[in-house]
Amino acid sequence: MPVTPSQLMQWKQTGRPIAALTAWDYTFARLLDAAGVDVILVGDSLAMVALGHLNTLPLTLDEVLHHARAVGRGVRQSLLVCDLPFMTYQESAEQALRSAGRVLKETPMQAVKLEGGHPAAIGAVAKMVQAGIPVMGHVGLTPQSVHRLGYRQQGRKPVDADRILQEAIALEEAGAFSIVLEHIPAELAEQISRKLSIPTIGIGAGPHCDGQVLVTADLLGLSERHPPFSRQYANLQEIVTQAVQAYCTDVRIGKFP
């Protein structure tokens, strides 16, 4: 049976870790789904890995909808979650509801994700949940705030750690079914994971979260640069380059076709 938000919460109770990855097109989505990934996130990281931007900020809602439709065509089992791009939910809870509504109406996505735990974000989460839209939260390092926070680890100071904890609690109370914890100290991630009844999914947040997520391009060695907390499981950039070079050589010397 396809994975659901309720199943993720059940897995937290039984201690079954959650494996999540990102996808940006049909081909990779099909492969991830067939390999048994629990959650496939159409993350706004596609702005960099698929569209060549320097950060996530330029991505538009129409662009993410286009990629979400492609990803959805390749998935049968994994839970599909879609990031809401920068400035598609920050203006008001009503704007967030409209953006999330488009995601669920125009794509096969089953849930949306938004960044931050400030009051405006909490209100947006509550509004969407009330409308029947499953929402995943995201606290710690929030890439859409890159010009304010940079990419450095968050929550190292006690005051910041307490703020992130309170944001996570508020997101759960607003109805989020899970929360991404990005680039925070492992001790803080463990504290949050123990405090919440909903699952936490870590990225650069240590081993004590209820699940883990990586950007698939980082995992496969396709990124030009990747964060220090990521892990490369293959070097497809090298493999693809060698294959294409071999093809070009064969064409030029008449060995292919």
Describe the structure.
It is a single chain. The protein contains 11 helices and 8 strands. With 257 residues, the chain is α/β, with parallel strands linked by helices. It has one domain: TIM Barrel. The protein has an 8-stranded parallel beta barrel with strand order 1-2-3-4-5-6-7-8, surrounded by 7 helices. The model has no long low-confidence stretch (mean pLDDT 97).
Task: Please outline what is shown here.
The protein has eleven helices and eight strands.
SSE layout:
Layout: H1 5-14, E1 18-22, H2 26-35, E2 39-42, H3 46-49, H4 61-73, E3 79-83, H5 93-106, E4 111-113, H6 119-130, E5 135-140, H7 146-149, H8 158-174, E6 178-182, H9 186-195, E7 200-203, E8 211-214, H10 216-219, H11 236-252
Parallel strand pairs: 1-2, 1-8, 2-3, 3-4, 4-5, 5-6, 6-7, 7-8
Helix pairs in contact: 2-4, 4-5, 5-6, 6-8, 8-9
> Could you give the count of β-strands?
8
The major sheet is characterized as: 8 strands, parallel, barrel
As a percent range, the share of strand residues is 5-15%
Tell me the name of the CATH homologous superfamily: Phosphoenolpyruvate-binding domains
Notable features of this structure?
alpha/beta; 8 strands; 45% helix; globular; TIM Barrel; 257 residues
